[in-house]
Amino acid sequence: MGKTIMIVDDSASLRQVVGIALKGAGYEVLEGCDGKDALAKLDGRKVHLIISDVNMPNMDGISFVKALKQLPAYRFTPVIMLTTEAGDDKKREGQAAGAKAWVVKPFQPPQMLNAVSKLILP
């Protein structure tokens, strides 16, 4: 049974690109189109890592991470923010919310997979 990673991004094409890279590296992939959708899909199943965008409709990435950390089953699930936001203020906000890493778009899949392999839960 492979490890499961959830991708949360309002861009279907980005979810596809990230999903292909992750599946190619042997991970199972779940998708959410925004924070609210992602939370609805986190039904207690084991998720080893989450990759989330910051700017999304309905619920942005920072709010999503804060909500995630309130859920006992996912309190320790590592989150990588994958975003066009390179600003230090946003990064600090993300880290304060509980994000473990920050990958700026456009990104190279090997760079993202490297961050994933370092942070993914055993």
Automatic annotation (TrEMBL):
One Pfam family in the UniProt entry: Response_reg
Residues recorded as bearing 4-aspartylphosphate in the entry: D53
Record's keyword terms, sorted: Phosphoprotein
PROSITE patterns in alphabetical order: RESPONSE_REGULATORY
InterPro entries tied to this protein: Bact_response_regulator, CheY-like_superfamily, Sig_transdc_resp-reg_receiver
Domain Response regulatory positions: 4-120
GO biological process: phosphorelay signal transduction system
PANTHER family: CHEMOTAXIS TWO-COMPONENT RESPONSE REGULATOR, STRESS RESPONSE REGULATOR PROTEIN 1
Protein name: Response regulator
Provenance organism: Zoogloea dura
